[in-house]
Amino acid sequence: MARRRRKGRAVNGVLLLDKPAGITSNKALQEAKHLFRAAKAGHTGSLDPLATGMLPICFGEATKISAFLLDADKRYLVSCRLGVTTTTADADGEVLQTRACDQIRLRDVEKLKAQFTGSIVQVPPMYSAVKHQGQRLYKLAREGIEVERKPRTVQIHQLLFHSVDDCTLELEVACSKGTYVRTLVEDLGEALGCGAHVVRLRRLSVGPYHNGMVKLDDLRAAAVSEAEGEFAAIDRFLLPIDSGIAHWPDIHLDPDLAFYVKQGQPVQVPHAPAHGWVRMYDQSCFLGVGEIQDDGKVAPRRMIRASA
Description:
Elements: E1 13-19, H1 25-36, E2 41-43, E3 52-59, H2 66-70, E4 74-82, E5 84-86, E6 95-98, H3 106-110, E7 118-122, E8 131-132, E9 135-136, H4 137-142, E10 152-165, E11 168-175, H5 181-192, E12 196-206, E13 214-215, H6 216-222, H7 232-235, E14 250-253, H8 255-262, E15 277-282, E16 285-292, E17 298-303
């Protein structure tokens, strides 16, 4: 049977989309994919509809490194409303309880920093994409069903409390993958004795990406020239495929070693790292991702097509 041909351009690269509030991450992805007229695209970690900020979108061959961005650390800027808890732990939910919070000062919140920094245990919220017996939790929550969730350990690398003003707490958090900021805020609120929920959430960084976000409006404006088949205006927003793992060690292969790697065979590379993941290059061309085996050889794991 002939393979079904994928519609769209062979676009390869990473876009740091500045997701606007009010839409899902998937909707933002689909619009970006449409504007690039790309055949293949995927995002690397959802943001709630309420949230804004960095949503890396991998096009084409860049989807082969998307898993590494999913596992990357993130940083968020958060506005929290103290004294009010909601069904979703954010402003989109229904109010559950209101408590007094006018006596809480920044010094009171600062006392909690040690308790909520480092390894902490979270219970995933019902309004999340975690699956329970094949069903997304948020779908069950919408039906009024609550199930037991398994606690998970996450890492809070840095927690900065910027201000408390009129029961609004501004904070910044750097954390590991799998951290629920809404749950963190909810737990902080309970520790303060007043409850809390997220009012605004902005993702500032993902892994090695700390700036360079592009707004959907900028993409829309750049896409105007596509009618004439000119894509340079919009393609200039794309970052190289290997930019998401630029902090990894790199190895450069001579033509013979590159040949065997392209055949999927592990090779012995002089002066390669002793363990871990590496970026592989044939002269200046990015070949893909390799992993150091126990015998010291570099095994190809994610190969990038030469045409990418």
